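Pasting two entries for a bug report.
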Amino acid sequence: MLEVCLLGPPRIAFDGRTLSALSSSLTLTRLLAFLVTHRDQPQSRSCVAATFWPELSELRARRAMNNVFWRLRSALSECDARETYLLADNATIQFNPHAQFRLDLAEFEDLTDAPAATGDESIPDRIKRLEYALKVYRGDFLEGISDDWCQLHRQRLRERLFDTLEAFVVACRDNGRVQQAIESAQRLTVEDAYRERGHQLLIELYIASNRLADARLQWERYCRIWRDDLRVQISEHMFRLQAEHGLGAVEHAFARLTKSSIATTHPSESLNREYLRRELEILRKQDELLDLKADRKRQRENLILAQSVADQLNDPDERIDILARRVWLGTRQGEYVEAIELAQQALSLSSEASDLSQRPLLHRLVGIAAQEMGDFYVALHHYTQALKQDEKGNIVTALPADLNNVASIQIAQADYLGAIGLLERAAQLLDKKDDPSIRLKVAGNLGTAWMRLGVFNSAQRFLDEAVHVTQIIGARCAGWWLIGQQATMHYLCGRTDDAFKIASAAYSEAEPTGDAWVLSHLADVLTRLHLHSDNAQQAIAWANSVNEQADRKAHWRYKMRAKMRLAQAYQLAGQSTRAYASCTEAMRLYESKAQDLEESPELFVTVAMCAVATNDLAVGQHAWQRAEIELNKQISRITEPTLQESFTQLQTTMLPQLSKLRERYD
């Protein structure tokens, strides 16, 4: 029989013999594990491909998945010719749930689900069943494999393991197997040090065994964890346990509960809510620790568990807080759609919350996710809502960030004067005590807006100020992004060599970090510089780099830019067909979002030039007309004549092809 062991390091065997084809290929093992775990329903080929090969294009990911699936089917066919382990059609693949196989995961779940179905189970039978379940659990689910999809399963199964250990401790205690109960409780407090129930059981077992010295030591360990690691209060039950048995002193600053309060607090519902609040506080502390360590996978698992606890507590403020944490994490991981859905859930709860300050925070979080996803209209709506609500609530400290957020969208939409007005107001509101990261964002955006208008002296001053702040606070990624802006300004001022020098150095420094946002930006700057220097091959290489980095975070705007740059580079290289294909893809991405962007005129000029090169004159004329419309729209937003003139002159420098198109079509 086929044996699939997923608890601990994965092991696949047939009739006791390890399958070498699978043991030598981690990719085959990962795919089999995924299909076996989700065996109850067919899995979309596209979804599986995206799960395992997110860095590849959809077509290449499908090809890779099909190849691995074929190899997996070949490896399994050697087990038993009479069995069909894998099912497939054009759209889906599936592990056959009706095949003959043993799965340790299913066995563990069946063994630990048994109490619900057998309420009259004797204690010796329960001990035997739980002991076998603990033996089946060789280790964490798919130990050594860090795929995102398995994190939730791993956390869920670990929680089930801890619940099983706890049940085993209680069963052994009730059956008089005190030493076995103590050993299992010790294991529980080691493997899940933040589970209070484990400490409670172990202390009670020590007391029952008349091992008071051990009970006091365990109480001290518990207090140390709760006080030093978690910085949360001990529960009523543990305080009562300490008081009844004289386990040790509790520092006044640590113990908020008094004996009189214990005597008057007795309802089980109150104790349960207190327990849930404490569990939630522990999970919050863990979230902060994992965030500092940048351990995003464990942070995600921890927050999903925290959400479950908050939902049980049914307190709107607590639920919103955890949802907000999940939104922020999802946005940082590039999971924008999920982040926005979670934020919308939180917003729907905010009308029931007592803390009204959470609502503008949630609007800001939706705005950030929408902005990074490329939906600037949605981002602007939510940023504006956050600004209005903070103004209404007179939350002055939040206004600079709100104003900066709205201004960042206005810059993306080429409303540079509007952005400058908001940013200058934000700069006036900033206090020296305010978060310096807001100061650098405001200065950086002011520099960008003035640069877009062609006012380079002001742009230089603000960009230099922002870079200086990044050096003070050590914000390296923000510093590299700003250097990209400085390089762009050098290029616009005719200092191409200086632009190459600082942009190349910044990219080399940033590359080891793998920050997709910064690397996309710097690669885009370097692409433009190579285009300006008529170096088509380098421009193609850097444009492909933009595309790869943007794919990693599903960043729509940089993906669209990458295709536009590729079209420009192929056009420069004389590869008209490839250029036209790339600009067609850029247009498809552009129209998929229907956004008002500052690069719209450049995109339409690129499409027009590619169309002319392939003799598609009708498309060329239409694209040229769209370019003129978009450019005139941007010019009309600039109400000051001198700024309008400098902006128009700058566009002539940046879009020299526009005059050629006018000559052709006018």
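Entry 2 (this is the one that rendered wrong in the viewer):
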Amino acid sequence: MEYEFETVNCNLCNADNYQKISNKGKFGLPTNVVICKVCGLSYLNPRWDKNSYLQFYQNEYDKYYRPKIQLDSSLNKEAVNPIEVRLKRLDLFPKNVERILDIGSGEGNNLIHFKSIFQESKLYAIEPSLASQIILKNNDVTILGSDVDAEWNDNINYKFDLIIMRHVLEHFTDPIKIMKKVRSVLKPNGIVYIAVPNNLKPTQNLNKSWFRNVHTYYFNKYTLDNLNKLVGLEILKMQEGDEFNMGEVYLIARKNDSQLSPVFSEKHYQEQLTILNQKLKLENSIPYKLTYLSKRVIRKVLSLTKNKSH
């Protein structure tokens, strides 16, 4: 299908004042990265419109990002679950969980892991992939919808103790709108876990892997803090990277009825801009390109050797 494009203002401060960063991304798909000069949020502009993204997630996403998905897969408990470890490490692991919602759940591995801990809990998911939906349904996960932008929150009369949003916030076309929905279905003492790539500490080649057309936003600790304040969530703890993923920033938040004011600072913009420009300059240097190419060749040779041995 043909994809339609749209232009957007900054989702956090609504400014239309940005610096262009790159127009290249993973798989060669159109990826126009800019950074807001007012608040420092990085995002795609122009980008595919909402319908184009929905069609891509339902029909094309698995081909690019989940090529090995199996329709007869069953949900498996991971030996070590990063979310569980992080919640316990920060002393925020919930004691009683009746309902768990995973937004962008994929095949549901996080859900089944927490089900093994809270055995009486009920599992829910919002997941656009049709293949993943089949697996979820086969494992007693209630699917609230395929489109997080739809009014899924209007059709439920219960709230959640734990909402998981692992590497999904960066995919939204309107994070503010969706996070307000998330807040509306969170119990007063419930928590939301959010993890995203850390744009202050990118661990991959920007133009070849870090920038992706499915990542409409690129967050850091400053922009995450502002986002949560704007929607009425209080960040209890936020961490940048650990043994599970050094290029990640994650947080745990809960409802806050007080009016929290965001802080939009040019310093945050300058810090983010400097980091991205320095990394792009490094990646465009001849020594870096030669090293990057040699690593790819070595990985390819090792992969071919491994396949032949089988």
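Dev reply: Rendering is fixed now. As a check, the viewer should reflect this: The chain has one domain: 54-291.
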